[in-house]
Task: inverse folding
């Protein structure tokens, strides 16, 4: 069982991420037992049958960088977990997808970053609305993950608004004007 | 210039701590090469041919004396005694050790400086008019707007891993001195009919492999909405820009693929959701940022008689004043350009002693303020006319008074093959050879305005596409060759140069430039400039002359003639 960071703390993870292998058909692929996060294609192909699993809180959906979050807009209220995949950590589409899910579509459930998720991006990820972070299995030891929690607080007062703090610094804090010296 | 408040300072301090930790983990083997690369790049650290190169941000080209002294100190302690100003108004050190970078960043932070986002696929240093606040043709001071964009883009969590780098430039004067048409976003300050401030927004400019001039996506975005609008542009780009091919990943390729109307439509569709949101700017915030620019309070002075008398009786001083002194919005003052284009020295290079000298002179004559031009020169924004003669003498003593601003020897050049591992060919020796050939000052002044830009490869760091004469290093079977373009221009009437024909060997380059110049001198009307002549008569006459004279040189040298 891998470890994830959720709401700033380390938790054992109970979910399995289903990835389609070459030749797998979204409509028929077998789902692993237990809590499972399925690709968007599986959800779209089998929404009728999977809805009950989602409602029971044992099925989540993951989006790839090329997926449009608008395609699950109407399902957001029944999904307790949505994940966004980072095939490479430098592929930053997931940041915008997260921001859209949270601020445009008002998604309030668990939003998880999966894939190539590294501690040096934790700060940006949480700012964009991810409340759970799942580094690849075996990427970090528990001790390293504990050390990595510090990365969630790298900058104490960022300038711009984002999902975690929608107001920019100039609205959050009174920033003083300079006293002009009179010539 | 802008003075940090406690929040600005805290952010750069926290950055130093973050980067020190990342470097330590890299050196300990916890971070792989691939994992560390974007982190160091977003801190301006390239690994180039001989050593790492550290690029330090000079936001919109504004510096003050204590910062120059810190450059001098860093140059002496961590480099080989010099630095290099770039075409994006930044400063580079060519020889620091990777292990020393956190320490250097700590020193920079102590004088309100950093290297944040000076490289990498993120929003880069905002650039602007180097004469902002003092130019006679300015209608709105761009600096507070630049600073607002700088703060918004610094560590923007959504846009740190874009498909490719992203550059924003802002201009607020009649003359476009910020090259807004060759930026990913070009912002032109303007007023609507009612006098309200807003921005004309250009998107999709850029040089590199596929040079493209930016196109207008919005004719007027009210200032309150400008961050929301930029956010919409960036979100569309972040989601839809190509990530499969680094050469096709700039926003200009997306804009071309969609067509500017469709791109603008997608931005608009995003913008409607962001409009009036929390990032909407307030008058209080604009006023606050503007108040933190501690501009000197200058009173207009009578035009200085002594200055005019000197001009009349000292030809060397007059030559310098003609090229290196610019009009100021206040009477009795002028702006002064310090040339970093001296024979025998790589364009943009400056020694530690010169950093110190510039700092001292800026305090004596220019209220301690220094500007960086994207043409790789420095400037003092406000100098009293009465001080110009004395300043000139002192600049001469430190080799910063070459009277060649805007002339042929004021060459823009990238570091090229001497430093850069991506280079096809060397740039600096070509620049030096051309400067050496055109060492006659009267001839140079007679040729008049001419911009010659050199890049060592297609990445176009030396802006060769927009040089009146552009030189591009190309690789032919492992040998260094140079392709020549003419007719490029930056600024208001920006245009991309056209290739004149097959490329040349390094040794031929001064001759080639000479042929171009002779052709110009024979064809020009009255005091027409080189670029105007090219525009009037086209590239053909230049081309014919260059290759005819090249053949003649070959004939002369061939053994048959001996
Ligand atoms: C020596 C290390 C350097 C390396 C490895 C390097 C690399 C690159 C690369 C790969 C690009 C193309 C990016 C793209 O088109 O997406 C680029 C563009 C650029 N570089 Fe450099 N560069 C270096 C130094 C410099 C220096 C010293 C300057 C200033 C003199 C500079 C100014 C620029 C500018 C202005 C562009 C933008 C051209 C555009 O708009 O496409 N670079 N550089
Ligand atoms: S243009 Fe090419 S050679 Fe010159 S600095 Fe840029 S990448 Fe290097």
Result:
């Amino acid at each position: 069982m891998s470890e994830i960071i959720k709401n700033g703390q380390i938790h054992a993870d109970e979910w399995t991420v289903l990835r389609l292998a070459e030749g797998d058909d979204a409509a028929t692929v077998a789902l692993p037992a237990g809590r499972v996060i399925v690709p968007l294609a599986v959800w779209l192909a089998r929404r009728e049958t999977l809805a009950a699993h989602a409602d029971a809180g044992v099925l989540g959906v993951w989006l790839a960088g090329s997926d449009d979050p608008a395609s699950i807009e109407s399902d957001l209220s029944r999904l307790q977990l949505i994940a966004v995949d980072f095939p490479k950590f430098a592929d930053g589409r997931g940041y915008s997808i997260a921001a859209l899910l949270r601020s445009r579509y008002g998604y309030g459930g668990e939003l998880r970053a999966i894939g190539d998720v590294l501690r040096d991006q934790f700060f940006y990820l949480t700012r964009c609305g991810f409340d759970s972070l799942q580094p690849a299995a075996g990427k970090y030891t528990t001790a390293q993950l504990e050390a990595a929690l510090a990365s969630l607080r790298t900058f104490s007062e960022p300038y711009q608004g984002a999902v975690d703090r929608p107001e920019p610094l100039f609205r959050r804090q009174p920033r003083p004007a300079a006293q002009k010296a009179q010539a | 210039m802008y003075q940090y408040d406690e929040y600005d300072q805290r952010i750069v301090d926290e950055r130093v701590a973050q980067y020190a930790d990342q470097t330590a983990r890299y050196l300990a083997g916890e971070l792989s090469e691939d994992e560390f690369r974007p982190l160091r790049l977003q801190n301006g650290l390239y690994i180039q041919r001989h050593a790492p190169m550290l690029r330090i941000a000079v936001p919109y080209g504004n510096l003050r004396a204590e910062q120059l002294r810190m450059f001098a100190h860093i140059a002496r302690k961590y480099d080989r005694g010099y630095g290099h100003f770039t075409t994006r108004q930044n400063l580079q050190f060519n020889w620091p050790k990777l292990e020393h970078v956190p320490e250097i960043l700590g020193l920079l932070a102590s004088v309100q400086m950093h290297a944040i986002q000076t490289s990498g696929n993120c929003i880069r240093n905002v650039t602007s008019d180097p004469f902002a606040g003092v130019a006679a043709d300015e209608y709105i001071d761009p600096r507070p707007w630049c600073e607002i964009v700088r703060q918004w883009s610094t560590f923007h969590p959504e846009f740190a891993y874009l498909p490719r780098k992203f550059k924003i430039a802002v201009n607020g004067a009649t003359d476009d001195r910020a090259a807004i048409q060759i930026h990913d976003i070009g912002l032109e300050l303007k007023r609507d009919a009612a006098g309200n401030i807003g921005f004309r927004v250009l998107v999709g400019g850029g040089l590199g492999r596929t040079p493209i001039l930016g196109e207008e996506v919005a004719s007027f975005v009210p200032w309150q909405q400008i961050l929301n609008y930029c956010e919409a542009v960036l979100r569309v780009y972040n989601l839809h820009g190509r990530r499969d091919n680094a050469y096709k990943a700039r926003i200009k390729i997306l804009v071309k693929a969609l067509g500017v109307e469709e791109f603008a439509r997608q931005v608009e569709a995003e913008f409607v959701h962001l409009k009036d949101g929390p990032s909407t700017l307030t008058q209080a915030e604009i006023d606050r940022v503007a108040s933190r620019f501690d501009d000197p309070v200058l009173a207009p002075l009578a035009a200085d008689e002594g200055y005019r008398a000197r001009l009349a009786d000292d030809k060397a001083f007059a030559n310098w004043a003609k090229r290196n002194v610019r009009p100021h919005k206040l009477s009795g003052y002028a702006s002064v350009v310090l040339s970093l284009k001296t024979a025998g020295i790589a364009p943009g290079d400056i020694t530690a002693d010169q950093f110190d000298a510039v700092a001292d002179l800026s305090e004596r004559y220019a209220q301690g303020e220094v500007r960086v031009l994207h043409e790789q020169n420095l400037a003092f924004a406000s100098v009293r006319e009465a001080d110009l003669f004395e300043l000139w003498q002192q600049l001469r003593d430190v080799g910063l008074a070459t009277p060649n601003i805007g002339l042929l020897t004021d060459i823009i050049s990238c570091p090229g093959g001497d430093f850069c591992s991506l280079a096809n060919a060397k740039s600096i020796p070509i620049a030096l050879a051309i400067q050496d050939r055109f060492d006659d000052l009267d001839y140079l002044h007679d040729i008049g305005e001419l911009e010659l830009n050199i890049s060592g490869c297609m990445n176009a760091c030396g802006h060769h596409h927009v040089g009146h004469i552009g030189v591009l290093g190309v690789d032919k079977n492992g040998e260094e060759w140079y392709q020549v373009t003419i007719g490029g221009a930056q600024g208001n009437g920006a245009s991309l140069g056209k290739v004149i024909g097959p490329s040349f060997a390094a040794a031929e380059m001064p001759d080639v430039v000479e042929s171009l110049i002779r052709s110009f001198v024979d064809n020009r009307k009255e005091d027409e400039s080189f670029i105007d002549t090219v525009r009037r008569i086209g590239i053909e006459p230049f081309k014919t002359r260059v290759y005819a004279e090249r053949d003649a040189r070959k004939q002369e040298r061939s053994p048959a003639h001996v």
About this structure: The first strand of chain B starts at residue 45 and ends at 47. The CA atoms of residues 121 and 165 of chain B lie 4 Å apart. The first helix of chain B runs from residue 6 to 27.
